[in-house]
């Protein structure tokens, strides 16, 4: 955003009634209302980077798009506090009582998560109750060194996997959360958004400079190939680490065996590292 301001080009905030028009032609338009006046932008391309609830995907005719979704039967309760992190590295916890995650925002600010029910609310759990649950799920050595403090933010995040196909509709191109959602277990949301923008920017540059449509024609297929691999990894991480309500007597020890295999196998660790760091473009 600083680079955008430095360019001198305008950025419109708090627009209302945003609508996309004629994106199946070579002259798409975006209309919006600002300060009570209607405006229209004539475009060469429309990049739909407006998130899961944005207008871009919603503007596509239902018959032209297919969606895939998995909604998980639990959520994450997150707490942000100005306390030093319990570890300089992420701690993922698989516990019979539920998943937990310790992450750092800085050397003085930490964000922690515990698995909770979908009916939980941010106001429904006190700081004291959160810290007690987190400590009970952490390994003993981490629980002993955990520094607690008042929250500066609490939230409840439901988990879902979602993909919309294709990602191109004429001169409208979906990117980021407008086209796909991953459960945060695999830490792939921003990674995927950046890869979409990488593919799309290169395709548009090629279309403008070299007058070839090869890049924009291949955008959706190329982006989705990487997206589905990240969806697979994120779903696997979620399945590996969470307690599912329907877990039976066979599934629980199987899940523990999977974690043990990961801890003991260099091949398994290599595969996890390759996916966690982000697959190549």
Q: Layout of SSEs?
A:
Blueprint: H1 2-7, E1 16-21, E2 29-34, E3 37-42, E4 46-48, H2 55-58, E5 66-81, E6 91-93, E7 100-104, E8 110-116, H3 127-137, H4 140-145, E9 151-165, E10 168-169, E11 172-174, E12 180-181, H5 189-210, H6 214-241, H7 251-264, H8 266-277
Parallel strand pairs: 4-11
Antiparallel strand pairs: 1-2, 2-3, 5-8, 5-9, 6-7, 7-8, 9-12, 10-11
CATH architecture of the domain at 181-281: 3-Layer(bba) Sandwich
List low-confidence stretches.
Answer: none
Terminal residue distance? 25 Å
Radius of gyration: 22 Å
Quaternary organisation: single chain
User: Average pLDDT across residues?
Assistant: 96
Question: Which structural class matches the secondary elements?
Answer: alpha+beta
Shape: globular
- Strand-residue fraction? 25-35%
Largest sheet: 6 strands, antiparallel
The CATH class of the domain at 181-281 is: Alpha Beta
Overall description:
The protein has 281 residues and is α+β, with helices and mostly antiparallel strands. Among the domains are: 70-159, D-Amino Acid Oxidase, Chain A, domain 2 (2-Layer Sandwich), CATH 3.30.9.10; 181-281, FAD/NAD(P)-binding domain, CATH 3.50.50. The protein has helices at residues 2-7, 55-58, 127-137, 140-145, 189-210, 214-241, 251-264, 266-277; strands at residues 16-21, 29-34, 37-42, 46-48, 66-81, 91-93, 100-104, 110-116, 151-165, 168-169, 172-174, 180-181. It has a 6-stranded antiparallel sheet. Strand 1 and strand 2 form a beta hairpin.
